[in-house]
Amino acid sequence: TLFPYTTLFRSLTKNYINVEVSNIKVMARESNYDVHFKQKYTSSNYNDTVQKILVLIKEDEEFKIISETTK
Asked: Of 3, 5, 35, 51, which has the maximum CB count within 10 A?
């Protein structure tokens, strides 16, 4: 399964960063897509869990983010 998606990588200012994405919902609109998801961010010195909404458009066979909202 692809989700929840978790990635762990190194940063120059942190010992580690972990990002987990879950509860993904995609809503197709007339000219764009709304993607709602929960993001859990953990690092060596900061932790946060938020709801995000990305608005995507398809341009030249690629998806591009046109807005991002964090709640």
From this structure: 35
